[in-house]
Amino acid sequence: MIKFFRKTRQNILNEGKTTKYVKYAIGEIFLVVIGILIALQINNWNETRKEQNLELALLQEMQENLKADILDMEDNIGFHERSNESANIILSAFKNKIPENDTLYKHFGNITLAPKFLVTMTAYNSINMEGMRLIKNDSLKNAIVSHYQRNYAYLLSWNDSEWDMLFNDQQDVFRKYFKEYNYVGEVIPENYEELSNNSYYRNYLNNRIGFNKTSIRYYKAFGIKNARSLIKLIEEELQHRN
């Protein structure tokens, strides 16, 4: 193509037609500019398509992350429910003067368990690295930011306080009233009869039940409910874009 233009210019010059040459030169420049603009536009289209593909891939990955989070939170709720069940069984045993037995040792152990919420944040971190501008739907973008920076942040903060309380209890309660405390399995009281009449330990059990109930409520409200809502928003966006 360049050879063709060069030959055409030379022919016009040989003819000595200056006006025609100027018009031709302007036309040639115009064609070059148009070609550059088309190339730039194609490049922009390619970059836009790459961004869109990356956005959709990360949204799909975020859906899977949220589903994994929901399973983790549901497992944690199960821990709290079992802990409360064991606390109530022990309180009932104390009240009804049930003798010490191996089954109660397991319930003493269940109360010591506190699960750790492990958020799956690979997609969210990738979106942050690329920039939130990657998410074109402003409503969806706001929902993502709110879920991870507000709901999960609060839930993780509560979870951390629960673990701090667990370790404080390990020093304050279990080292004082139990022979062995290893976080799992059976936990054997130093003196079961004295423990059954100990108001401090009964208060601990009742407070533990209340704390667990709050944890369950937070998991359901701040975690599971909002995660499911966000999954639905992402699904709607993916369907709209396909």
TrEMBL record:
Task: Write down a Pfam family by its short name.
Answer: DUF6090
Give the transmembrane region(s).
21-42
Q: Which domain of life is it from?
A: Bacteria
UniProt keywords, alphabetically: Coiled coil, Membrane, Transmembrane, Transmembrane helix
- Coiled coil, from the record: 42-76
Protein name as catalogued: Uncharacterized protein
Native species of this protein? Halomarinibacterium sedimenti
